[in-house]
Amino acid sequence: MQCDAKFDFLTRKHHCRRCGKCFCDKCCGQKVALPRMCFVDPVRQCIACALVSRKEAEFYDKQLRVLQGGATFLVTFGNAGKSETMVCRLSSNQRFLLLDGDSHHEVEIAHISTVQTFAEGPPPAGGNTRATGMSLQYSTPGSEGVTQLKLTAGEDASASRRQSVAWLAAMHKAAKLLYESRDQ
């Protein structure tokens, strides 16, 4: 399916355990773990799927803990001018964003349609920009239209701001990974 190899007795077909397409050994020779599909040992995958599987594994190893640990944000729903201090975290089943403060909200991950990260300029010493907030658009079952949710990290240089910035970076990586896997 990728290199137009002719299959015969010596050139065998192999199928990618992630996408199911057939490839020659050269195009489907990488063995990568695929725990989300219940493969315990590394399995044969095509080049494109192996790359996505490695990114997923890195995400699960590093970023998931940060998202489930949560962070404190100033949260604004819709066009309301009033913000509320809330802890935002990913649920243990990874299906919801949970927001807890004076009120409680749950946003189903599958219903998030848009994720936009806000960042401040590059630090004075150079390097990468630092995330300061995030805007999510999502639909709520039973209601029409979309709701916007804005998360803003605190302005101080405290540990909670660092935790919020780390959470935003992990969420940005999660969204990027989610949209890459949807496109395949």
From TrEMBL:
Q: Which PROSITE patterns match?
A: ZF_FYVE
Q: Where is the FYVE-type domain?
A: 1-49
Q: Where is the stretch described as Disordered? A: 118-142
UniProt entry keywords in alphabetical sequence: Metal-binding, Zinc, Zinc-finger
One annotated GO molecular function: zinc ion binding
> Gene3D superfamilies of this UniProt entry?
Zinc finger FYVE domain-containing protein 21, C-terminal, Zinc/RING finger domain, C3HC4 (zinc finger)
Instruction: Identify the domain of life.
Output: Eukaryota
Query: Which residues are listed as membrane-spanning?
Result: none
Feature: compositional bias, Polar residues:
129-142
PANTHER family recorded: ARRESTIN DOMAIN-CONTAINING PROTEIN D (PTHR39490), ZINC FINGER FYVE DOMAIN-CONTAINING PROTEIN 21 (PTHR39490:SF8)
The entry's protein name is Zinc finger FYVE-type containing 21
